[in-house]
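Self-study notes.
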Amino acid sequence: MTNPFSLREWRHNPCLMSPLTLTGFILLCLLWLFTMILKFPTFLLGLFLQPLTNRMGFIVEFLYPLSIGRWVHFYIMRLAMRARRLDKSHGYHSRAIEQRLAVVEQRIYVHALPQFMDNLGYLIVSVPTAASGNILAVVIDCGDAEAVTRQIYFISERHYRKRRIQVVSILSTHKHHDHTAGNRALQNQFKDTLKHIMGGAVEKVPCCNYTLVNGQIIPLPADDSNDMNAFIEIEAVATPGHTRGSLAYVLRPKVPTSSSMSALLFTGDTVFSGGSGVPFEADIDTNQETKANKMTADSLLRTSAAGYAMERCFAELLHRCVSHLQMPRETADRIIVLPGHEYTTDLLARQWSQPNDACRWKLFSPAVFFEVASHFYVGNHRRNLPSNNGNLLIAPSPLSREVLINPGLRSLLRRGVLVLNHLNQWHNHFAVRKVPEAVTGAFGVNASPSHLRHRRSRASNPQSTEKQWNINGNDLSRPVFTTVYATDLEALMHDLEKNRVTGPVAAARLEQMVLALQQPNVGRRPIPSSLPSSNAVYKGLLGFALLGSAPNALSLSDSVAMKLPAPVKHSDALLVSKSRLIAVLYWLGLLNEENEGQRTIRILEQLWWECSKYESLLKYDLEEAGTQVRDTIQLGTLKWLVYGVPTLRPAGLFCMPCKRPEPMQDVRDHPIVQCGLKREQGELVRHDMYSCPLCIGATGQLIQNFEQINGSMRINSVSFEVAPLEVSRED
């Protein structure tokens, strides 16, 4: 018999529970309202404080340079460094005394100088041929003079038979204390030889007596028996963003060398291995990527703000490192990035949870993901070695690897793909003259298929010992892991077991397996017979600006002092350089040396010719298009000719709040009106899950046998019916 007074009966009794539920709901609403009343002052306070919290970079820019800022910074670092273990790293965060990077064999070497918790300075050494000559050196970034002095002594003992190293110059990348606090003490330590402390013209580097500007070639130490200028040159490249006057230093060998070095980029806090520095002094702009998805073709581009400012600095370094006209694409393995901090593992770890497009792995090939994962694993291993080994450095890193593992460079890569898509759409629909499918060479190097040239030959390198670790570009660029598809490897193993392939054929197939991982598993392309949407036009213009326009100074006075382009009132006035755009696309791997890359360059030249003609800058015969065109054109001209969006006249100073800017062109005059094409949002996505190596375990494929047909593999599969290949649209 059921107990009428049981809790279960009451729980389901509507006569009792309905009024109780209503009473509880009303009490909950009243409690919520009471809580909101109490929180309302906090809400108002948050509204007032948000503009201030968005400007926390002001603290770094204006308070950090003060003495109190320096004291707080070093006090925090001292607290963190108390827990540092004493091991083979000599008390520094990394074991680097034994390591040296050969730039010019027997003459020029670079040594890392670990400082504080994670800072990295560098010592560039010039060794004379005569045993009695002076060893001359340049220090890049001295935050801790005691640490630098001790390490110079150890380096002399390990590598140069205790010969005295004379420090002649200090090059400071920027003004922050962890990079400059040791300048005065090091000057006192080497007061007989240290003559120059160099830094950006607007940086106020401590003890600076030699200011540098953008593009300046730095005088290097020299004496009767040893002249560093004869072997290398160092150029100062302005990278405004982290600070107003930040500089990167590009070292280029002047003589042929067997050390496989093409350029060394000392990037300070602008570029790290696996990430970028914080743009403390760039223009303020929050949630850039979220805002970019809501912008239209008429929106203003803020290319000097936050992350965009850093991306322009990345592109500037790609443009200035080495001329792409004299170097093949494989030179990216021999362009070495030397950052100002060892943040690599932390920056790589963040990429697994970042929501931006640069970390959306479905947009990239599997090779990108596995390169990030493998480098993170290697870095985590090197930074957590037993105490009797000491932690090893992960940096320096070759540019070819950074293009894959660095979100800033991957973002530029995505923008480059979008720019090329829009460039082809313009050429197919609106170009006055079409570029033929087959074109002559556009590069200064011999074009040959890239898949035949990806093997690395080991450069000659003196044998390393326990006390001397001699490394070169090939050592830095050599991968630890190589990932291939299991089905491809199983097919090769099956053919080897059956003696169906020879050794050379097997080696060629192994190379193809590595290259196969670089191909995306999902094909993406623009919607045919359509025009980019208004938001896609904004992103395309942003790509042209970030890839093709040089970083401008953050103020008019800075532009004069640093010899940088001045800030513009409207983004349509930005100057986009054709040569810069080509160089950046080339080093990102989007332009090859074959016909496809050469044709893209011809299309760019055709576009620049039409833009020049439109601007009435040059007048010449059509046959000479692409040979006498001005290198820079305004972004507004590209906006009109490529996208059919009018350039906007900036409104007057007193009319800006109420007056809409007037267009300089009538959209009815553009061929876009007569073409009848519509603007479409999104792209076409193509994927065959029955042949996709990533889906093979979910579609029920049973691999029966492998056949070799004309040197390529074919997988015969059963147990499913092949459906027609579907092409879907993704917004």
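Second protein, same conventions, sequence then structure:
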Amino acid sequence: MNKTWIKEHWLEILLCVGIVIQIGALAVFNLTRLPYESNYDSSCAYAQIVEMWRQKRILLKDWAYQTTLGIDSPVLLGVLFYGITKNAFTAFGLANIVTVIVYAFLFYDILKQADVKKNMRLLAVLFLLTPYSTGQLGYMPMLFTSAGSYAYKLLVPLLLIDILVRMHKGQEIKKYWYLILFATFFVFDTAVSSGEYILLCAVLPLIGYEILHVLIGNDIKQIFNKRLGFLILESAIYVVGIKVGRRTGIIESVGSQMMLTKAKHFPSVIAKCLTGIFQLFGGIPDYEDIPVTQTYGMMYLFRFFLAAVILASWIYLLKHLKENEKYKELVGMITCIFAVNLIVLIFANVNYATKTFEYRYHLISMIPMILLTSIAASDLWEKRKLLEQTIVLVTIVLLLFVNVYDYKNYMRDCYNYQGDMQGITLTAEQEGVHLIITIGSESISMGRCMRNVNPNVEISTWGGYNHGVGWGASTYYFDNAHLKTPYMVLMTQKEYELMPKQIAKQLEEVQVFGIFRLYRVKENVLDGDNTLPQSGTNRDFCYSSGYEYWGKMESDGNVLSSGKKETVLRSNKKKIEKDAAYDIVVHYEVLKSKEDSAATFRVRNAQDEIIAEQEMPSDATKITIKDVSVITGMEWVRYRINAEKGSKIRIRSIETIAQ
């Protein structure tokens, strides 16, 4: 390597070094920092790959998904790595590293097919791997770290763009058949997992561009071309994927609701939508009031400038499209994706919990737009004018500076209660306990992250002593029948004080970890799920959620009747999800009775019809009602126990066993 070659390729070398450092930083982060960055959302993905490996299936049993099935992220690859490493963090980190490399090569290939000069292809990759925003829903966690929730979704438009650019150049399909194969896989995968989202915001805009391309060419016969045929075929596969997702019952919307924006909100929504682009790239603080004169404030200004460069590149190329004729297809496709996404984000109310604009939705259009920075920079650089080349160099210098500063902070600032989590799970394991239930809103995030710390200790997160929290978690331990004692409970002192006395008195404090207290449970006293079980058994207590009682609630949670002829216990309304049959077992104790029967157990439906009934003999301690059939037309069923006059009966629990 001589000095002349270095002099000719110095910019290419500089960009290569920058990209190698970026990939190295991402590799180190993904292999060492994921446990400390683990949060409410990402921990759900980590736990999901562990559960998928255990169950050896993609559609999990006893699992409450979040907004999507989640397989249009590194989850599937993470499962394979988990099978090798048996560590959820390492497995997901390796999957994220593969994603980073795939994106870098795909970006480079698209620009190569578009005939962009080699050195400037690298500029787009440098832009791509910059850690603009790193919050839970920021740029980096959505793509290359954490759960990478948007990583595979975005491969759909990028792969389709790569294929279409090749088709426009007239390449033979045999040269890129593997890209078509990958594109088809990710189209189907995303459709099954996330529904219509990418079809509307990425695939249909490309179809729109191809139709527009034919109309501008003024030859309607060209409408029957292989590019449109390919996109229509992929759309059909996407629709099939949506149908498959619907059949699984997984596709649903739990988070942001796609409702139309009200007319009076249009001005504010348009403003939020445009500023959301700069928020995505870390150019506008979410909440903090930071002086721009401070280093932290200046970094926001620099990132704002980089976001502006991306948008300016697009505007520049639109203005000079005649001079850059060979790039018109790439610019046109990205413009259509950007336009459709803006329309969707303006007309649909995508505020998170109706407050914060969901700026991560801009990823679908802004990631492809980063490609245009290379084309614009290449055009400016080739002019060989001092001003234009200075603009390009200043942008590169700022990019490198932002990368150094933000990667350093990203590595350093990741922190959660990892030390406490390790201590809590180790304490449980040493005492022979393999289940910890976290209770209360303050403990949910802690519990979610703790699930992945120790493979020998299961964690179940509950919003209260009688309410298991799903949304990205196993529901197996919400069912009281699955709570094998002894187990432990983790909560704050505040949550402990809110618990019913009959439960709190049976908890034995083990140790304090910061604001959290760890308790040992010797008797099974919790119930987080009192619905009709899809399989297995659900056991309800008298204090289970939605239950009402008449009489006395005893210190151990049982209900004692008063001796009057009255309703002693009435359950919640148990919604019927599907036609099914159940055995119902009632556990009780008769202390006094004038009759052979101390009480009667009944099951009523929403139409107030008795669908099952059985007397509770005075000389027994339980009754079993066999084959209680329910159908969806009943809507719901409710249990009721009516005591006979003069009888004293203690109700302990009710089991519902799926047939």
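Instructor comment on the second fold: Residues 154 and 576 are 38 Å apart (CA to CA).
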